Structure formats: C-alpha cells, structure tokens
C-alpha cells in the first residue's frame, strides 16, 4: 500500500491519479483535480521515497539524474498499487488518468514507458524523459497532455521535445503546450490542460 487520499466522484467519471512534485504530498494537487474535473474520483498518492524529508516517487543520484533501478522498482510498486486501490475503493481500473507535476509527472511517464494500457491518459506537467534505452510499449491513441515552460531550468525545452517525440513515436496522441514560464505550475497551463481534458474524455 501507499499513503493516499481517495475521493469518490460521480458514477462512471474518470479517476484522476494525482502525483505530486518533490517535497509535496498527497494533498498538494487536490485543488488541481477540482479545476480539471470536479466530477472525477481522485486517487492522490504520496511518494514512498524521502529525500531529506521531502517525499518523492523514486530516488535520484542528483538533480536531474535518476536512480534507474529504483525508478523501475517504484514504477512497478505504483502499478501494483493502482490494482490494489481499484479493489479497495471499487473504481474502474481502466478509467484512470494521471495528473503529475515534476517528479510526479516523471513517475507517470515511467508508468507509460513500462506498461501498455496502464493509464487511459495522462497530464504531464513539467516532465522529463524518465528513462532511456528501454523497449517501450505501444501507445497507439493514448491521449497525453504535456505542459512545459520555455524557461524551465529543471526540464529543459530540449528534453521536453525529446519526450514529446518519443511518445509520438510510440503512437501516443500528444498535445504539447508551452508557457514562457519556469518550472512552476501556471494558471494558463492548467486552463489548457482542463480544456484538453474536456475535449478528450
Ligand atoms: C525529478 O527529480 O523527478 C526531477 O528533477 C523533478 C524534480 O525535481 O522533482
């Protein structure tokens, strides 16, 4: 099990899987879910890693350099948790859409990189390429929204474009949205993500 919050939404509405950034927790993105889809169920998870007291979803060796062994272990742990949580909270496992910011976007990306059909869609806010040189699953038709900042010092525009290309190569249906911002979340990108979500689901 992972520390989490579950909020039941309307019948048949999607389940938003909320994944916070480094130093965040399972309450951080609840307002974001409310902005994206107030009818959705919410499964908001706390990362199992503590980096000097800051929760994360996987270990890193240093800023921007991931511990790939731990990333893969934690990705499987989260995938297994989704199955368990669907049982416990009686939600439709095939109706889960990830909303991740920063480190949370990276573990969401890693779910997509490791498992076919793991998510119905994903909103990746300020993501990086989670891992390179692995065989990727088919992602045909998978709806993905990427929110990025042209001045993001952590997720460089080059890396954002690389992630975009990789996802498209696997068949995902990617919408890439830029703001002239840094690593922080901005209201305009959340509005764009909501409009995209309204059109997709
Ligand atoms: C990561 O470690 O996942 C990225 O550098 C983003 C972050 O700082 O959380």
UniProtKB/TrEMBL annotation:
Domain Dienelactone hydrolase span(s) in chain numbering: 78-186
Q: Name one Pfam family in it.
A: DLH
The record's GO molecular-function terms, alphabetically, read:
hydrolase activity
Q: Which UniProt keywords apply?
A: Hydrolase, Signal
| Name listed for the protein in its UniProt record | Carboxylesterase
- Organism, by scientific name, is Pontibacillus yanchengensis Y32
